[in-house]
């Protein structure tokens, strides 16, 4: 499935749960290098917005990245660890079917399944059970990420359902699923960029997406 690997999915969301907080973010530089527009929640959302991180290929070309909305989840032990209300939007640049650089094969096209994988694994890294110790966490996260990978490869089947949400005011059909950890959705914008999202505490049914006019507004 696509060029997005399990390793990329594990590292993409930009949080180190073992440390209990956000990692490697707060800089807009990588976002400004992307050859595609970034998406976030539209103006109907009036809460906090924050940068996360971007992921580039071996040649330094930005492939995808995330923007956060709402209360930034901080994974620490305690009763407040699971109360954050947030939504993260994953933007994945369009990647058509193409030959590999060395001419030995073909790279699969990037599709909405890539966005679904990144969103599904991102939700896991921000919502792993706080009562779990670090030894069990690694095994749990690996197992759950494998499940997210398999589910992303089966869009259009249960447990995915269809959800129509506006993207720059145009209704777009998304694939949507819920779990005990939160919700995940994925689809494709009219311009060919793929959008994933995950969250908890904020209902996905009331969300809308839009191109971010100036990504610098997410810096804080």
Poorly predicted parts: 1-25, 76-81, 97-108
As laid out across the biggest beta sheet, the strand order is 4-5-6-12-11-10-9
Beta strand count? 13
Which class of secondary structure composition applies to the elements?
alpha+beta
Integer-rounded radius of gyration: 16 Å
Note the quaternary state here.
single chain
Structurally, how many domains make up the residues?
Answer: 1
Order of helices and strands: HEEHEEEEEEHHEEEEE
SS element count, helices: 4
The helix fraction, in percent, is 10-25%
Strand content bin: 25-35%
Head-to-tail CA distance between termini: 36 Å
Specify the overall morphology.
globular
Largest sheet: 7 strands, antiparallel
- What number is the mean pLDDT? 78
Brief summary:
The protein is of the alpha+beta class.
Your description of this structure?
The chain has 220 residues and is of the alpha+beta class. The chain has one domain (6-218). 20% of the residues lie in helices and 31% in strands. It has helices spanning 6-11, 29-32, 112-127, 134-152, and strands at residues 15-16, 21-22, 39-41, 49-56, 62-70, 86-92, 98-99, 106-107, 161-167, 170-179, 182-188, 194-200, 209-211. Helix 3 runs antiparallel to helix 4 (134-152). Residues 1-25 are annotated as: Disordered.
């Amino acid at each position: 499935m696509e060029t997005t690997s399990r390793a990329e999915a594990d590292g993409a969301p930009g949080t180190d749960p073992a440390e209990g907080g956000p990692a490697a973010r707060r800089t807009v530089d990588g976002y400004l290098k992307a050859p595609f527009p970034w998406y976030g929640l539209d103006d109907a959302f009036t809460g906090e917005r924050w940068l996360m991180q971007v992921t580039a290929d071996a040649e330094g070309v930005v492939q995808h990245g995330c923007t956060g909305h709402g209360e930034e989840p901080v994974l620490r032990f305690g009763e407040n660890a699971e109360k954050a209300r947030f939504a993260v939007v994953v933007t994945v640049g369009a990647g058509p079917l193409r030959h590999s650089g060395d001419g030995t094969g073909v790279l699969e096209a990037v599709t909405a399944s890539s966005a679904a994988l990144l969103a599904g694994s991102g939700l896991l890294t921000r919502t792993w059970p706080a009562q779990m110790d670090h030894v069990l966490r690694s095994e749990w996260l690996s197992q759950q990420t494998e499940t997210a990978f398999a589910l992303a490869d089966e869009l259009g089947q249960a447990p995915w359902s269809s959800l129509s949400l506006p993207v720059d005011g145009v209704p777009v059909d998304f694939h949507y699923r819920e779990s005990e950890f939160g919700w995940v959705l994925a689809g494709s914008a009219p311009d060919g960029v793929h959008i994933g999202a995950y969250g908890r505490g904020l209902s996905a049914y009331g969300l809308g997406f839009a191109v971010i006019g100036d990504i610098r507004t997410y810096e804080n």
